[in-house]
Write a structure and sequence with these properties.
68 residues, 1 helix, alpha+beta, Nuclear Transport Factor 2, Chain: A, single chain
């Protein structure tokens, strides 16, 4: 069972990404094992890239943010 649903994971990702990237767009949210993987297309200094934010689905803790 997960305490964090997909909507909450997306809200958490939006809060995280807006601190460092603008503009950004959430493009995918997948639950794998007990971790939400929220993929976003972000812009940093005019350059776009994909980032995946991993969020623990039970605690809501951000595990990592990886550039693809």
């Amino acid at each position: 069972m997960t305490d964090i649903d997909s909507d909450k994971a997306v809200l958490m990702a939006r809060e995280f990404f807006k601190q460092s990237f603008y503009p950004f767009e959430i493009v995918d949210t997948v639950l794998q094992d007990s971790t939400w993987h929220v993929k976003a297309l972000v812009t940093l200094f005019g350059v776009q890239s994909d980032r995946v934010l991993a969020i623990d689905s039970i605690t809501g803790r951000i595990i990592s943010c990886v550039k693809l």
